[in-house]
Specification:
By secondary structure, this protein is an alpha+beta fold. It is 17% helix and 32% strand.
C-alpha cells in the first residue's frame, strides 16, 4: 500500500456532471485541480452505470431558447455530433475526453474519499485535507489545498467537515411554501435503477429469480406505464427509498429496486399481456441513481418563491427551468401519481450565495447538495442544472483562491469579477450583460455586409386550422406597427388578435395584454389580412400574439422560420388534470416552421450591434446578428472599426448553436441534425493591413458554438471582420457575439 500527497489549488470531490463542470471551469481559470471520483466512470447519474437523461432548463421543450450553454452546452453539442442515437458508452467518452483535455486537471478515478481534516469553531470551520482510498491500486491519497468543492451528491465531505445541512422536507411555514407539508418530515425523493431490453431475433425464455417481486400484488400495473418499446429512463418511476435513509439504507434500496425490475420483466415476458417473446434483458443497473440527500446551508436558501417568482438575484450565476417536480415518498409502490410538476413562467436564477457553505469558510458545493429547500430542490436537482451550477462554483472557487478571498467576500463584493469571467467563458448565464472593459470590441463601431430587417414568411406550405387559439412570438425592436397573416376563410367573418407582453425577458408566455386588433375577412383563399397592433414597448422585447379561434378560418404556414420566432397552439386542461400548476396552456407547434406572416415595421432585433457586448443568449429577443439570406449576400461579414489602431492577441466568436433545440444525451428523443444548422461552418477572421484584408484565422468544418482563437502573434489594426463562407444549413449567417482581447487567456 502507498501513501501519497496531492496539493492543488482546488480539490473537487465527485465526478458527476456538477463535479466535472466545476473542475473544468476552475482549470480554465488557471487553477490546478484535483478531480476525485469514487467510481471508474465519470458522469454520475448520467453515466453508463446509471443512464439517467440529462434534463435541464428546457424542461423537455416546455421552456424556449432555454438550453444551457457553457461547459454542459459544449458536452451536449459534441454528444449530438458523435452520438445522435444516445449510446450511453459514447456519452461516457464525451465527458471523459472533456476532462482529459484540460491540462490543469489531475483525475483520480476509483478513489473514495472517506475522511476529512477540518478545524475551527462551529461557525467558522476550515477544511484542511481530504483523504481517499484508490480501489484496485491500494493507494491512500491525501489531498490538500486552500479550496474544496463538495460535488459528491450525498455531501459526505461537507458533513465530515461540519457544514450545516438539511435533509427531508421543511414545514410549509418555514419558507412559506405551499407545496411543502404542513409539518416538517424526513422523507426525500427516492432512488432509481433502470433497465434496457432488446429484441434477440428469436424467442428467449425468462425464468425469474426467487427474489423477484410479484408486481401484480402492487399498484404498479395499474398506476405505472409498462410498454415493451420503452427502455432506460422511460422507467424513471422505478423509484424507492424516499421513506428510508437514502444513504444508510442504500443496499436495501438497491435490492428492492432490482427485485422490482425482475418482477416487471416477469410481467412483461410471462403474463401473456405483451408481445415480448423475442425480448431479452440487455442491461440492468447495479448502482442506484440517488435523487436527494443532504442539502448544505449557504448564505441564501433557494425556495419555491425564488423559483416560481424568477427572482433576479444580483449574484445570479446559473439558471434552471425544470418544473418543481416532486415524487411521492412511496415511489413505485405509491398509489398516487408518480410525480407532480409546477412550472415557472420561464427560466429562473440561482445565486452564488447558494453555492458555498455558510459556516465552512473554504467549502463550495455544486449539484444535488446546494443550498435550497426541498421544494426548490425539486427543480434544481436535474443534471444540466447541476452542471451549470458546477461551472459557476468552479469559476468562483478558482477566482476566490487566486485572490485570497472567502466565498462570501467574492459573492458580495466582487460579483462583477465572477460575471465577467463567466461571460468570457460563455457560461450559462441569464440576464448578465457583457460589460468587460477588456473586451476591445465594445469600443469599436460595428458594421455588417447585410442584416435581416423585415420578418416575412410568404410562401405557403399548407394551412393550420384556427379551431383553437394560435400564438406566435416575434421580437419587437423598437416597435411593431402591424402584422399581416395569410388566411383562408370559408365565409365572411372577423378575426381577433391580441398582443401580450411576456413579463420577464426569458419568458415565452402571454402574461400582460397590451393591444387588441380585429380585422374583417371575406370568404376566400390566400388573403393577406392586416392587424394594426401599433406597439412600442419601453425596451426591446418579445411580443406574444394570440390569434383567437375561429372555426371558419385557416392560417397558412411556411416550411421555414426566422430566428427568434415561435408558434403555439392553445390547449384546454382536461378535467382529470389534478395538479393545475403543471398544465401548460400553450403547446409549441410548427417546429422549424412558421405561420405565413409579414411584420409591418423594420426591426433592429438582428442588427450587428447585437453581437457586441450585451447578452449572449436569447433574452427579450434573439440577441445576435443575422444576415440577409446567403443567396443575396453570398459572403456575409460582421466587422469592427476602431478610431485608433488596437493590438490584440485573442479573438473569440460565439455562433448560434440554436438553444431552442432540446438536445438530450441518451435516447429520450432523436434530433435529426448531427451539427446544429445555425452554426457557422466555414469562416475567416481578417484584419485590415495597408488597405488589404489579411486572413489571420481560417476555419473549416466548425461544429462548435464558442471558438477562441489565440493568435501566434499579436495583430495591430483599425479594422477586423469575420467573413462567413458557409453555415451548417441555415440560410443566413448568425453570430451571437464577437469579442477581442489584448491578452490571451
Amino acid at each position: 500500500m502507498r501513501h501519497e500527497e496531492v496539493v492543488s489549488d482546488v480539490t473537487v470531490v465527485g465526478g458527476g456532471l456538477a463535479g466535472c463542470c466545476a473542475a473544468i471551469a476552475a482549470a480554465r481559470q488557471g487553477a490546478r485541480v484535483a478531480l476525485i471520483q469514487n467510481r471508474p466512470v465519470l458522469g454520475g447519474n448520467s453515466s453508463s452505470e446509471v443512464r439517467v437523461w440529462v434534463c435541464g432548463a428546457t424542461a423537455h421543450g416546455t421552456h424556449h431558447y432555454a438550453r444551457e450553454t457553457g461547459i454542459i452546452g459544449e458536452l451536449m453539442v459534441e454528444n449530438q455530433y458523435r452520438n445522435p442515437d444516445g449510446n450511453p458508452y459514447y456519452w461516457d467518452l464525451v465527458v471523459l475526453e472533456a476532462v482529459r483535455a484540460e491540462p490543469n486537471i489531475s483525475l483520480f478515478l476509483n478513489t473514495d474519499v472517506r475522511s476529512v481534516e477540518a478545524d475551527g469553531p462551529e461557525h467558522e470551520r476550515t477544511v484542511r485535507a481530504v483523504t481517499g482510498w484508490m480501489m484496485g491500486s491500494e493507494r491512500e491519497i491525501r489531498f490538500t489545498g486552500p479550496t474544496f468543492l463538495d460535488c459528491s451528491g450525498d455531501g459526505l465531505v461537507g458533513f465530515l467537515a461540519g457544514a450545516r445541512f438539511r435533509t427531508g422536507c421543511e414545514s410549509r411555514e418555514e419558507y412559506g411554501e405551499s407545496w411543502a407539508p404542513e409539518q416538517a418530515d424526513s422523507t426525500t425523493l427516492g432512488s432509481t435503477i433502470l433497465f434496457y431490453s432488446k429484441d434477440a431475433g428469436h424467442p428467449v425464455k425468462y425464468v425469474p429469480p426467487s427474489f423477484a417481486r410479484d408486481i401484480t400484488r402492487t399498484s404498479i400495473p395499474e398506476r405505472r406505464i409498462i410498454r415493451t418499446d420503452l427502455n432506460g429512463c422511460a422507467y424513471w418511476w422505478i423509484e424507492w427509498g424516499g421513506e428510508r435513509d437514502v444513504v444508510h439504507d442504500n443496499e436495501e434500496i438497491r435490492d428492492e429496486l432490482q427485485a422490482a425490475i425482475y418482477g416487471i420483466w416477469d410481467h412483461i415476458k410471462n403474463s401473456g399481456k405483451f408481445d415480448a417473446d423475442n425480448l431479452t434483458l440487455e442491461w440492468i443497473g447495479a448502482v442506484p441513481g440517488k435523487r436527494e440527500y443532504r442539502r448544505f446551508v449557504g448564505d441564501h436558501t433557494l425556495t419555491q418563491a425564488d423559483v416560481l417568482g424568477q427572482e433576479l438575484f444580483p449574484d445570479r450565476v446559473a439558471f434552471g427551468g425544470w418544473s418543481i417536480d416532486l415524487h411521492p415518498p412511496g415511489g413505485m409502490y405509491a398509489t398516487e401519481k408518480g410525480s407532480r410538476h409546477w412550472h415557472p413562467h420561464g427560466n429562473y436564477h440561482i445565486p452564488l450565495r447558494s453555492l458555498y457553505s455558510e459556516n465552512v469558510t473554504n467549502l463550495w458545493m455544486a449539484g444535488r447538495n446546494i443550498s435550497c429547500s426541498h421544494v426548490a430542490f425539486g427543480s434544481t436537482r436535474v443534471m444540466a442544472t447541476c452542471a451549470v451550477v458546477g461551472e459557476a462554483a468552479g469559476t468562483g472557487a478558482a477566482l476566490a483562491t487566486r485572490r485570497g478571498l472567502r466565498p462570501r467576500e467574492l459573492a458580495t463584493n466582487e460579483i462583477d469579477l465572477v460575471h465577467r469571467a463567466m461571460v468570457r467563458a460563455d457560461a450559462a448565464l441569464l440576464g448578465v450583460e457583457n460589460t468587460d472593459p477588456d473586451d476591445l470590441a465594445r469600443s469599436a463601431e460595428v458594421q455588417a455586409s447585410s442584416t435581416l430587417r423585415r420578418l416575412v414568411v410568404d410562401t405557403s406550405a399548407g394551412t393550420v386550422p384556427l379551431d383553437s387559439h394560435l400564438g406566435m412570438v416575434v421580437p419587437v425592436d423598437p416597435s411593431l406597427g402591424f402584422v399581416e397573416l395569410l388566411l383562408d376563410a370559408d365565409s365572411d367573418t372577423t378575426v381577433d388578435v391580441e398582443l401580450h407582453s411576456t413579463g420577464e425577458p426569458q419568458n415565452y408566455v402571454p402574461l400582460q395584454l397590451e393591444r387588441t386588433a380585429v380585422a374583417h375577412v371575406t370568404a376566400g383563399q390566400k388573403q393577406w389580412v392586416r392587424f394594426d397592433v401599433d406597439w412600442t414597448p419601453d425596451r426591446p422585447q418579445n411580443a406574444f400574439l394570440v390569434v383567437r379561434a375561429n372555426d371558419s378560418v385557416s392560417v397558412h404556414r411556411g416550411d421555414s422560420a426566422e430566428p427568434g420566432t415561435l408558434f403555439f397552439r392553445h390547449r384546454t386542461p382536461p378535467p382529470e388534470e389534478k395538479y393545475t400548476e403543471q398544465w401548460r396552456e400553450w403547446k409549441h407547434i410548427l417546429h422549424r416552421e412558421s405561420l405565413c406572416l409579414r411584420l409591418g415595421s423594420p426591426t433592429r432585433a438582428y442588427d450587428a450591434g447585437q453581437a457586441i457586448g450585451g447578452y449572449a443568449r436569447p433574452y427579450g429577443g434573439p440577441q445576435m446578428w443575422v444576415s440577409e439570406r446567403m443567396e443575396w449576400d453570398e459572403r456575409p461579414w460582421i466587422g469592427l472599426t476602431w478610431k485608433e489602431p488596437v493590438t490584440f492577441g485573442e479573438v473569440a466568436v460565439l455562433f448560434d448553436d440554436e438553444v431552442e433545440e432540446d438536445l438530450i444525451n441518451l435516447h429520450h428523443h432523436r434530433t435529426p441534425f448531427d451539427v446544429m444548422p445555425g452554426l457557422v461552418r466555414d469562416y475567416r477572421m481578417q484584419a485590415m493591413a495597408d488597405g488589404e484584408w489579411v486572413t489571420v484565422v481560417s476555419v473549416r468544418d466548425n461544429r462548435r458554438r464558442h471558438r477562441v482563437h489565440r493568435l501566434d502573434e499579436t495583430v495591430t489594426t483599425r479594422r477586423l471582420r469575420v467573413l462567413v463562407e458557409a453555415t451548417n444549413g441555415a440560410p443566413r449567417a448568425h453570430v451571437v457575439a464577437l469579442r477581442v482581447y489584448a491578452e490571451p487567456r
